[in-house]
Fold:
Amino acid sequence: MYQRLFLSLALLFPLAVHAQKDRQYVPACIGFYNVENLYDTIDSPDTDDAEWLPGAPKQWGAQRYRKKLAHMARVIAEMGRDVHPEGLFCLGLCEVENRGVLEDLVKQPSIAERGYRIVHHDGPDRRGVDVAFLYNPKHFTYVAHKAYPLVDPADTNFRTREQLVVTGVLDGDTISCIMAHWPSRRGGEKASQPRRFLAAQLGRRIADSLLARDPDARIVYMGDLNDDPVDASVRRYFGTTEDKDVASAKKFYGPMYELYQKGIGSLAWNDSWNLFDQMLLSPALARGHAGGYRYYGTRVFNEEYLRQQDGNFKGYPFRIYVGDTFTGGYSDHFPVYVILVKDAARP
Structure:
């Protein structure tokens, strides 16, 4: 259950993957991480951040905030380093309070030299948490972004995370990354399910709008979906297939399905694993339509130091808090990343 996913990718040179004697491939890694309550220590009157203040029971002060930042940066620094020495070229995030915490994050010593730039839009979520996007400008050139609110027609007071689309050029290939954090299962899986259906339908409309402009659009839909790869929200309402050879404009490729079937998860609850953190790929990325980057593999980044080492929750993701008790960990989710490759230019 706690097995690590090993990939056959072997780097012999900083920018080339040798899969065959006569061919070289250039790799790129795109990740997603639910950083679990990355709040600053300042009271924001327009959001419900009362529990994340120095005077609250959690005693969320500057020292603990700095530790959280250092831990998140360590994970970001190490993700994808088994594929490329510069690690992640792009990273989607969720549960960030504001742009300020992202600015503090990218300045952390372990990742500062990469010069990650930020795309963030302050959304309507009542807790004040948003999705966001970081990119290495050496490999990704920003073009545009747009945020889409999720609306529940049955409840005009409903406020939750937006879905954020960022389009840019990844080492010569135009690509769109869509970050999402679907409504939680609070109140029960079945009772809360309709809102995840709405989130899936919104994501599908966003993807369809990109595909309408370019049928070969390279799209990565990523996020904490609060559902597994086999659930109806993902398979039916968004539209996915576990077979990349049959991926189409109506069926994105879901590479996490195979991991889920093997018992690999990104979070644990009641002694079972879920794979809520997912990367879904358009057919052009799944199979490499029109050349350029294409899918190679995916991984749940579940290193030993990210796991609880003892107690009743041994093996679970190592959180920074359990209730109001500070444990000094990382997040209640393991991050994930997808590996893309394209043919290297011949000399």
Remarks:
- The mean pLDDT is 92.
- DSSP finds six helices and 19 strands in the chain.
- The two ends are 45 Å apart (CA to CA).
